[in-house]
Amino acid sequence: MSRAAKPVAVGALVALAAPATANAHGVAARSDIPIPDWLFAWAAALVLIVSFVALAALWPKPKLEREHWRPLPGGIGRALASRPVEVACGGIGVFLLLFTVAAGLLGQQIPSSNFATTFVYVIFWVGLVPLSVIFGDVFRAFNPWRAIGRTVDWASGSLAGEPLPPPKEYPAGLGRWPAAVGILVFAWLELVLQDGDLPRTVAIATCAYSAVVFVGMAVYGVGPWIDRAEAFSAYFNLFSRMSPFERRGDEIGVRRPLSGLAQLEPLPGTVALVAVMVGTVTFDGASEGQLWLGTALPLTRTLDGIGLSPSIGLGIVYTLGMLLAVALVYGFYKLAVAGARSVGGGFTAERLARAFVHSLVPIALVYVAAHYLTLVVFQGQAIGALISDPFGNGADLFGTAGTQIDYTVLGADLVWYLQVALVVVGHVTALAVAHDRALVLYDDSRLAVRSQYWMLGIMVGFTTLALWLLSQANA
Question: Which residue from 98, 246, 425, 428 has the least number of CB within 10 angstroms?
Fold first, then answer.
């Protein structure tokens, strides 16, 4: 949901604080718990320090870089990766794409009553993250743009009777930069743009993005553009690298969990992409707290004083806030890299930045999981009703239009405990991944451990920040 849209709608800057703190993600205020919030942060930091010491003592050799992939037994892997299954999954993806656009353009323009908004912002954007971590790169199978591009290539070649001329070579320097920009724009649409959650806006944005993807595939080929530049393919693929399942060729197999992160090719723009992933969620959490509201209000009034309308002024403030959050995450990571470089080894800062960037993926995961936990659990239930009445016109196709959201599924205190657990486990995982890579880079294990002192500091900082943001949102 766009938190900028609600304050603008009231038409008065003085009312900014109240709507902006509305529980757009369904985060219920928890009751007073017997342990204060600050103690959680100290305990989490202690867990990270103990984990760091344990890794140094008990993890003397790299484990994640080794090859451990093996196909699923009994031909299951080949069956799941077969052409008929791939065509069926691609067809489902194309149908959902077209259905989302149709619902957004033709249905009621009430976000909570239209299939498009809930499907894109809840089921697709957030719901696919845990599925990717558990089952692997499922989005690749259902990716509608990939399915359409491959179909067009096949049909064009068949009609021409001869192979099509090869596309242009994808520029090496472009790397994942288009994907980083795409995720940043999507986050801006959700978090900043006024009426960014309106179904029609979602549909138009989907069509515009589809046009960009089609042009990219036409120029550089379906495979290169999907694998590197298509924002959601790159986004979900990063999470899928934590999964024990991986497709290789025409077969799906299993591998050691997290080992896929070690195989990540550090293309240009990868650090920026992960910084966007972490930074935008950080801003989303911060924008629900009183500190941000107390900052945004006077800044917006200042812009209003020079002649800008409240809506434009607020949009500028929120845009700058989101960019600042991304820049801070990027800067903190660069600080950790500079610290690692200072211990020796002869590596350049760029080499180290690319070498350790995969260790930030678990952090991105737990930021998403902790912050959007209640959004998926609560608002995700609405999809049952929206499937029966996708356009919001009173239909009841499957008899589930009257389904209500059960807000008692998770208690507020339980949500807090789960969020803390997710944050701590995620950052410990990030430490382990970074430690494993350090053992590969440095010949001396002691030097490898020393190189991670700064990474430990950054992890403690990220953990504390995450818990503080959650406490602000839940307060």
Answer: 98
Two structure tokens written together for 230 = 């298509």
Compute the residue count for the chain. 475
Q: Could you report the per-residue pLDDT of 389-403, keeping only the tens digit for each?
A: 999 989 988 999 888
> Is residue 32 pLDDT above 90, yes or no?
no
pLDDT for the residue 305: 80
CB atoms within 10 A of CB 458: 24
Give the list of residues 6+ apart from residue 135 with CB closer than 8 angstroms, or none: 243, 245
| DSSP three-state, residue 33 | coil
- Summarize the confidence of residues 281-309 as an average pLDDT: 86
pLDDT at residue 259 in the model: 95
Residues 6+ apart with CB under 8 A from 58: none
| CB-CB contact of 404 with 394 (8 Å) | no
**Secondary structure of the chain: what % helix, strand, coil (to 5)?**
70, 0, 30
Which residue's entry shows tokens 């298509």? Answer: 230
Task: Say whether 245 sits in a helix, a strand or coil.
Answer: strand
Residue at 133: amino acid letter: V
> Which has the closest alpha carbon to 130: 356, 354, 325, 380?
380
Other Cβ atoms closer than 10 A to 164: 11
Task: Output the CA–CA distances (angstroms, integers) from residue 124 to 45, 63, 246, 445, in the order listed.
Answer: 33, 33, 21, 42
Integer Cα distance of 89 and 422 in angstroms = 31
Question: CA-CA distance, 85 to 180, in Å (whole number)?
Answer: 30
DSSP H helical segments within 34-82, as ranges? Answer: 37-58, 76-80
Residue type, position 279, single letter: G
CA distances from 272 to 78, 206, 266, 416, 473 (A): 35, 23, 11, 30, 26
pLDDT tens per residue across span 214-236: 999 999 999 999 999 999 999 99
| Mean of pLDDT values over 347-352 | 91
Question: Which tokens hold the place of 285?
Answer: 């959490």
Q: Name which residue leads in pLDDT, 280 or 464.
A: 280
Among the listed residues 26, 113, 114, 115, the one whose alpha carbon sits nearest the alpha carbon of residue 407: 26
As a whole number of angstroms, the distance between CA 151 and CA 158 comes to 11
